[in-house]
Automatic annotation (TrEMBL):
Gene Ontology, cellular component aspect: cytosolic small ribosomal subunit
Source organism superkingdom: Bacteria
Position of the signal peptide: none
Name this polypeptide is given: 30S ribosomal protein S1
Naturally occurring in which organism (per UniProt): Maritimibacter alkaliphilus HTCC2654
Keywords in alphabetical order: Repeat, Ribonucleoprotein, Ribosomal protein, RNA-binding
Length: 554
């Protein structure tokens, strides 16, 4: 008996499976949502039917099926084995997944739940985490169609001890997409015309699906004309013909163009728009430095701010023209190589300075408002938004310019005379004092150099005497008061005396007469000598002057 008992115990120890291992069993009954499984050696256990179902599917188990289960404990309080189908599947799955991870192979699974930051995936018994960024190549708004669908995944990392597995669906898609892109790109060539579907529209262009690979159609390659936004021309889902401009074999980037399939309007620009010809155009864009004007679709020219107005020099272009406004412009320059046309707006209107010069010759009287007062003169507003300037020296005949200008204020309406028009420098010179004529010119209009005139003494000074002729003041220096040095004394004259003097200079610019008593005496002596004697006759100067005086009396 002792030997039999020893053999029995040895047999039980050898054949009874160890706890914590996977054993085979047979389904002997299905009741109350559980499957009763006989694992041999008079051990039976219960497993919930849901452990036999894949996510989203009904349990697939019937009586008589052989299944593998995980033996957690040989006997519980009720004398039953504690077994688990799910843990058996997990152990089996981990073995399979570790081999796939080592071989960098794909695994099959199904997304069955949503968790923070991603989704849960059943990999045939093992649960993995699928981050939201690894679901697709682009963000997925609705993952509903992907739930419960069996599909391949790539294992990114796994830790059996912690029970963590991270998978990616995006890696599979990118790989297949790369293969597809390589195939499609291999069939494309630069210059080829292909058909595509507009997939996405951005500020700078549109992405076009060429059948598995996207190409970028930049906004500048959509049309020869200016396109502010791609949505002006294209819409998502639209089928279009494009030309392959460039293919980057390394990055698989494809540049596309639409305008290349159309005739380039620049081929005819030089013939259609000769220099100095005038055309109508539409303002398409306004900048700080000018305005762009469309002459025809695809052909734009720039009107520089300096060519916009004859008179508005420091004004923003937006205050002269507005977007979409139709304007007349003149072609100033064409650069075919740089595809640039320089246009002029002011050239379509006559130069207002030329018009003013024609209608207001020198001497014309004008009237205008004082626009500005500066340290060197007055600016008077004239016709056609042009200004004329009255210099300080042209304000008054009698006052200093600095004093005379104090009498004027902005907004005053004044009259003036046009003295000069310089159309090249765009300057108009005016004179207020010329309105009353030139009193100096009127006073000395008939006076010539060398002439003897009579003046009236108005003041006696140490350096000479002040005299007046027809209202014009002059000064005779002491040295010019007499031929005789002894008589060069200002005090021998009195205010109110009438004195004959000789005109030595007429300076219209400084408005001064040069006068001299000495010059008159010298001239008279010379004349007397010429008429009544000479130094060779033996007559004295007194005799000669006496004879001249006597003849004068006769």
């Amino acid at each position: 008996m002792e030997e039999f008992e020893a053999l029995l115990n040895e047999s039980l120890e050898m054949d009874t499976p160890d706890e914590g291992t996977v054993v085979k069993g047979k389904v002997i009954a299905v009741e109350a949502g559980q499957a009763i499984i006989d694992v041999g050696y008079k051990m039976e256990g219960r497993v919930d039917l849901k452990e036999f179902a894949n996510p989203g599917e009904a349990p697939d188990i019937t009586v008589g099926d052989e299944v593998e289960v995980y033996l957690r404990a040989a006997e519980n309080a009720r004398g039953e084995a504690v077994i688990s189908r799910e843990m058996a599947r997990r152990e089996e799955a981990w073995d399979r997944l570790e081999k796939a991870y080592a071989d960098d192979a794909r695994v099959e699974g199904a997304i069955f739940g949503r968790v923070k930051g991603g989704f849960t995936v059943d990999l045939g018994g093992a649960v993995a985490f699928l981050p939201g960024s690894q679901v697709d190549v682009r963000p997925v708004r609705d993952a509903g169609p992907l739930m419960g669908l069996k599909q391949p995944f790539q294992i990114l990392k796994m830790d059996r001890r912690r029970g963590n597995i991270v998978v990616s669906r995006r890696a599979i898609l990118e790989e297949s997409r790369a293969e597809q892109r390589a195939e499609v790109i291999g069939n494309l060539s630069e210059g080829q015309t292909v058909e595509g579907v507009v997939k996405n529209i951005t500020e700078y262009g549109a992405f076009v699906d060429l059948g598995g690979v996207d190409g970028l159609l930049h906004v500048t390659d959509m049309a020869w004309r200016r396109v502010n936004h791609p949505s002006e021309i294209l819409s998502i889902g639209e089928t279009i013909n494009v030309q392959v401009i460039k293919i980057n074999k390394e990055t698989h980037r494809i540049s596309l163009g639409m305008k290349q399939l159309q005739e380039d309007p620049w081929d005819l620009v030089a013939a259609k728009y000769p220099l100095e010809s005038v055309h109508k155009g539409r303002v398409t864009n306004i900048t700080d430095y000018g305005a762009f004007v469309e002459l025809e679709p695809g052909v734009e020219g720039l009107v520089h701010v300096s060519e916009m107005s004859w008179t508005k020099k420091n004004v923003h272009p937006g205050k002269i023209v507005s977007t979409s406004q139709e304007v007349e412009v003149m072609v100033l320059e064409i650069d075919q190589a740089k595809r640039r046309v320089s246009l002029g707006l002011k050239q379509t209107m006559r130069n207002p300075w030329e018009v003013f010069a024609e209608t207001h010759p020198e001497g014309t009287q004008v009237e205008g408002e004082v626009k500005n007062i500066t340290e060197f003169g007055l600016f008077i507003g004239l016709d056609n938004d042009i200004d004329g300037m009255v210099h300080l020296s042209d304000i008054s005949w009698d006052q200093r310019g600095e004093d005379a200008i104090q009498q004027f204020h902005k907004g005053d309406v004044v009259k003036a005379v046009v003295t000069e028009v310089d159309t090249d420098k765009e300057r108009i010179s005016l004179s207020i004092k010329a309105l009353d004529g030139d009193p100096f010119a009127e006073a000395v209009g008939g006076v010539k150099r060398g002439q003897i005139i009579t003046v009236t003494v108005t003041a006696i000074e140490d350096g000479g005497i002040e005299v007046e002729y027809e209202g014009m003041k002059s000064f005779i220096r002491r040295s010019d008061l007499s031929r005789d040095r002894a008589e060069q004394r200002p005090e021998r004259f009195q205010v109110g005396d009438h004195v004959d003097v000789r005109v030595t200079n007429v300076d219209a610019k400084s408005r001064r007469l040069g006068l001299s008593i000495k010059a008159r005496e010298i001239a008279e002596e010379k004349e007397a000598v010429e008429q009544f004697g000479s130094s060779d006759s033996g007559a004295s100067l007194g005799d000669i002057l006496g004879a001249a005086l006597n003849k004068g009396d006769e």
